[in-house]
Amino acid sequence: MKMTKNLFITLLFLTSAIHTHTMDQPEPKEKKSVIPKWVKSVGTFILGEKKPKNSPDMKELSIAISELPKEIQNQIIGILLASQNASSLIEASQTISSFAQVNKELHELINQRDFCLKIIKNLSARFNCSNLTACKALQTQKAKKQLELQTELFKICQKPTLQTENWNDNVLFAGLIMQGVDFEFTYDYAGDITTPLIIALLHQSEATDVIITVGKVDVTRASKKGTTPLEAAEATENKRLITLIQDQIKKQHKK
Length: 255
Prior knowledge:
By secondary structure, the chain is an all-alpha fold.
């Protein structure tokens, strides 16, 4: 397997230049807006950074949402308590998703890309599952969109070559990057929970180079069972990939 310069240049060009590609239609960029303080406060509870059963935290929340209608206040507190008490991934996901129906501000918060990813990764840690499993369970608008992106990345990571002449492959990869695919997302793979980098390495995929260079991932991050990217590269006996990972480890350690 050989990663050609033409392929890499093509992907970088497409990433910066394409504004019309998507699997269906391009998602408009999220507008930067000022997030009300009460929304930020509720967000910390949704992510589990603060607990509604903790008296000081609850007092802080009550003050933060005090200007909202009483009905909305009760809804927020009720959902937070239900979320904290949830005993399964499905129950917790459904509870969190219900925030999107409370009002416009919480709907926007739940469907922000970065916040959505935080919810997904929080659920993964809480219920000991992959990001993909948590994403499937969440079922919000943004989670469904993220699921599409991550599923396509998973497929690409299992392709040994990304042919330069295959315009569709290149456009798709660039489109995923532009739309916010997460290169640190975790997947259930071969009885493990692992990253796109390790999957791409095991398949000796040319996607490896793009994941490292464009995704700027941690090349020392191991899978749940402890397999590192270097071990994955060594398992293939592919000298180019082994050298690539070794070089990247040195570079990241220098920073």
